[in-house]
Design brief:
Blueprint (H helix, E strand, L loop, with lengths): L3 E6 L2 H9 L8 E5 L4 E2 L5 E2 L1 E2 L11 E2 L1 H4 L9 H7 L4 E4 L2 H18 L3 E3 L4 E5 L1 H6 L3 H16 L3 E6 L2 H8 L7 E3 L5 H5 L12 H9 L5 H6 L2 H8 L1 H11 L15 E12 L5 H22 L1 E12 L4 E12 L2 H13 L7 E9 L6 E3 L4 E3 L7 E2 L7 E2 L10 E2 L2 E2 L1
Parallel strand pairs: 2-7, 10-11
Antiparallel strand pairs: 1-9, 1-10, 2-6, 3-4, 5-7, 8-9, 12-15, 13-14, 13-15, 13-20, 13-21, 16-17, 18-19
Helix pairs in contact: 4-6, 11-12, 13-14
Length: 410
């Protein structure tokens, strides 16, 4: 029998902030602002209250105390201020969150090495062999939770079941600091009463359509005639809905995926004009390029095609990209190329969102070098072999977006 775990860090960003500001424990805290707390004369901190926020930012995350007041991730900060005016507003620190992400994943790998990265704060883990060799799946999961707390000071919730779909549902059932183990026999009592939209893969539109058809719970979806579901949603999605409602999922834990892109993005507190706000926009643009170069360095990639995405004040989106003569992760080279991309776009309207990134198409084909096995993309790219001779494995060149495209493992 397979045992797959889904580990989800509890209110991850907010919990990292509480390590930095322990005096905020138990208070409603929202992450997503721009100003850090002020240090006062007596050494204490003066935090920004949510009621004082003015702008159009959104909540990145919130503590459970804040969620109890009705605020949640993705909610506009102004709307959240009406619900929880006394909540503390903190700026997001993604550098710190990525550091803790690496820490908790390394801690898990010490216990269970078969890990599928599913984002900054969640992973899937194949526990099948460990559960058979040790004292059962619960003991292994408890060891993982303990190791994560020791390494980070943070709690996580784990769901364990025979597959990824059920495990992701299970990890939400006893948050925070929960451990839930499900088998197929538990589905009628624990899964079917949940709203259909809790299944990962049933989004807001599909959930609304199901509700319009009289299906609100997972149990009602499981009871629906499979033929009727295919008539309503098409053969592929209809069949998947029926299987998902019955807890069937054969997807394996994938321990490696070649990244298709790396990117950095920022939304401005106010719209910036490419000419009138050139200095401010240029400084932000340079910082994004430096962050992208650091990401490439840390992950061991080189980039060749640099692209920029702009969202204007009328919500129109424009993308521009250029391919460099050779791969790079030099921040200045990326900045020069990104600047040329920016000049190719319309400059008469104010900019709301600026995105830059790097990427390359992942693929199934493999190639070998004397020191390390590499994955080469299906469509190709020039991949740089990591051996001392620096030998290139030549593939047909391709491109992606700023993203940097044509990424090459170093």
């Amino acid at each position: 029998m397979r045992w797959i775990a889904h580990l989800d860090m509890d209110a991850f960003y907010a919990s990292v902030e509480l390590l930095r500001y322990p005096e905020l424990r138990g208070r409603p805290v929202v992450v997503g602002g721009a100003r850090p707390p002020e240090i006062q004369a007596d050494g204490s901190r003066r935090f920004v209250a949510l009621r004082d926020y003015k702008g159009r930012g959104v909540i990145t995350t919130a503590t459970y105390a804040a969620r109890a007041l009705g605020v949640h991730s993705g909610m506009g900060l102004m709307k959240a201020a009406a619900l929880a005016p006394d909540a503390v507003l903190l700026p997001a620190d993604f550098h710190e969150y990525r550091k803790f992400s690496r820490l908790f994943k390394a801690a898990v790998a010490e216990v269970a090495p078969l890990i599928e990265d599913h984002g900054i704060d969640e992973i899937f883990i194949d526990l099948t062999q460990l559960a058979e060799a040790q004292a059962g799946v619960r003991a292994v999961a408890e060891r993982i939770k303990s190791r994560v707390r020791e390494a980070t000071g943070l709690t996580c919730s784990i769901g364990v079941s025979p597959n990824k779909l059920l495990s992701k549902l299970a990890s939400e059932l006893e948050k925070p600091d929960g451990l839930t183990i499900l088998t197929q026999a538990d589905i009628p009592g624990r899964i079917w009463p949940l709203p259909a939209g809790r299944i990962n893969g049933i989004g807001p539109k599909a959930s609304a359509r199901l509700e319009a058809l009289g299906i609100r719970s997972i149990g009602e979806l499981a009871a629906a005639d499979p033929q009727w579901l295919t008539e309503q949603f098409g053969a592929h999605y209809g069949a998947w809905l029926h299987a998902a409602a019955h807890g069937r999922d054969e997807r394996p834990v994938v321990t490696f995926r070649e990244p298709k892109s790396l990117s950095r993005e920022t939304t401005f507190e106010r719209d910036l004009h490419p000419r009138d706000d050139r200095e401010a926009l240029g400084a932000i643009f340079t910082r994004l390029c430096e962050q992208l170069a650091a990401d490439l360095e840390r992950k061991g990639y080189l980039a060749k095609t640099i692209g920029v995405k702009l969202r204007y004040d009328d919500f129109r989106i424009v993308t521009r990209a250029l391919t460099l003569p050779s791969h790079t992760r030099d921040a200045q080279a990326i900045r020069r190329c990104a600047g040329r991309c920016l000049k190719k776009g319309p400059l008469e309207r104010r900019v709301r969102v600026l995105r830059g990134g790097g990427g390359g198409p992942g693929g199934a084909g493999r190639t070998r070098c004397p020191r390390k096995r590499l994955r080469a993309p299906k469509t190709g790219a020039n991949w740089l072999c990591p051996c001392p001779r620096g030998r290139r494995i030549q593939r047909p060149a391709t491109s992606i977006h700023r993203g940097a495209r044509n990424m090459a493992p170093e």
